[in-house]
């Protein structure tokens, strides 16, 4: 007899299984319950509303107990997605993001997302199931020493083997993840600890941890010294990093800049910390920062670095970095001081607290000459900008981003992946607000954007969310489109489809004599892929079609995928080659004669006009 045919029904968002009807949060403090129940109860007491995860044997008691608790669970398609979603949720909300996975392969699949959060200082708690404690160390089925694996990529991690230790560990983990310099924490809980019972104890007092006492307030004598340096500088530049958003210092930074009239540039993660539309905003610094910014940094007499860590992508060659500048470094993590760049004055503390302490004493100087010099540098760059070129009928990524910025009035929450599109987004989408650009800066993780945007959606469901992603990175975690469908997520995915692993292709063009090893990339038909998910798919091949596609996407109630077929061999300019001096950039080609360009850019030797 033939097998009965299984009829699979596509669950729509509305009918998606969300577990049993959600209970009202129980309060079992002082009562004996299972370790698994303690886990959810403790998460609820921490204010957790949503977790991103994937079940399995070693975490099944926790999943079973979950149905009694009013915490939303988002079922991902791969645990890497869960970690990026927790990360995106944390970046968009400022709260701690939570992901959950089983032991072994479930736990190791979280690793890329944990490392991504570590390098960008994102508060996250990753909960993993572990084999029963009696089997620890026996290479039991699905056993991996996840605390050992994640030791170098977490702020701290815990192996919990007793039910009574679960609640205090959750409390401590959230404290560690979110105080001082934020970061990811792993809690690995054995299956027997989840199954055993214990009294649910919850200490309401603030967590006190010897050895973890972040210094939020800089020393008064250092503040006095900083004031003197700032007030006497003629060519100062503020370098605004991720610490602006992290400490909620946007408003104070704006006041500080207006009071001192200092030009201000941002790191990639700092974008939006200072409004891009402000006259004192210079834009992004570093490898793909604008030429005027990098040159201004090199000519500055004072750098005021706020919550940034002098990553090699922003400094170029450290030996020649800002040679005439005194350097003030405001940073919460003392380990960052003098790590990459030797500074004249460290101010260990929270950026917001530090600006607060400086504000009453800093003064405005006459900066006419300094701004005139920056304008001169800007003028040179402006003529090279792709936006100055007449429409030649082709679709360039920069145009897509620029139009997206214009059409969304700069107010969208944009989540980018990693590659050329990430840099074009940083250059052409002018961010005026914090927490509106989410991107993997430190680890540079392809596959980040789609899941991180899903996490952001749960943090800010009212926001217009755009994913800007390459055809390569999109394919790394595209399976999470199904999660979008099942969970009723509304985001807009703009695939900047150039048929290449673009950023690597660009390096091959510049530094490997155009040998395109393993960078031409086949993709599925993204419109059909969207269609297969019962989502909307659109394709754009001309600049004139961008507007209509964006409007259609915005009007759609659900996730939309727009396949932007852009120029295949376009490059991101300017570019500071790895290890080169910051002012030694490969500049945008322009209408100027090639000879002229090369005269100013000795590195530009591809022989192309
Ligand atoms: C997980 C991962 N693997 C490899 C890389 C190296 N890498 C950096 S950019 C890039 C190309 C990205 O191509 P695509 O996603 O198509 O974006 P594009 O650069 O074309 O905008 C690669 C392979 C990476 N950053 N992350």
What's the average pLDDT? 93
| Helix percent band | 25-40%
Identify the bound ligands.
thiamine diphosphate
The side-by-side strand order for the widest beta sheet comes to: 3-2-4-5-7-6
Largest sheet: 6 strands, parallel
- Shape type: globular
| Helix-strand category | alpha/beta
Radius of gyration, Cα only, in angstroms?
Answer: 25 Å
Count the DSSP helices. 24
Percent strand: 15-25%
Distance between the termini: 71 Å
Taking pLDDT < 50 over at least 5 consecutive residues as the criterion, the unreliable ranges are 1-17, 592-609
Q: How many strand segments? A: 20
What does this structure look like?
The chain is α/β, with parallel strands linked by helices. 35% of the residues lie in helices and 15% in strands. Helix 16 crosses helix 23. It is globular and about 70 Å long. It starts with 31 loop residues before the first strand and ends in a 9-residue tail after the last helix. The relative contact order is 0.11. Thiamine diphosphate binds next to helix 17, helix 19 and helix 21.
SSE layout:
Elements: E1 32-34, H1 35-45, E2 50-53, H2 60-66, E3 72-75, H3 79-93, E4 97-101, H4 105-109, H5 111-119, E5 124-130, H6 146-150, E6 156-160, H7 166-178, E7 184-190, H8 191-195, E8 197-199, H9 220-232, E9 236-240, H10 243-247, H11 250-260, E10 264-266, E11 281-284, H12 291-299, E12 302-306, H13 312-315, E13 326-331, E14 345-348, H14 351-358, H15 368-382, H16 397-407, E15 413-416, H17 420-428, E16 437-438, H18 449-459, E17 465-470, H19 471-477, H20 480-487, E18 492-497, H21 502-511, H22 526-532, E19 536-540, H23 546-555, E20 560-565, H24 594-600
Parallel strand pairs: 2-3, 2-4, 4-5, 5-7, 6-7, 9-10, 9-12, 10-11, 12-13, 13-14, 15-16, 15-17, 17-18, 18-20, 19-20
Antiparallel strand pairs: 1-8
The protein binds thiamine diphosphate.
Residues 417-421, 444-447, 470-473, 496, 498, 500-504 line the site of thiamine diphosphate.
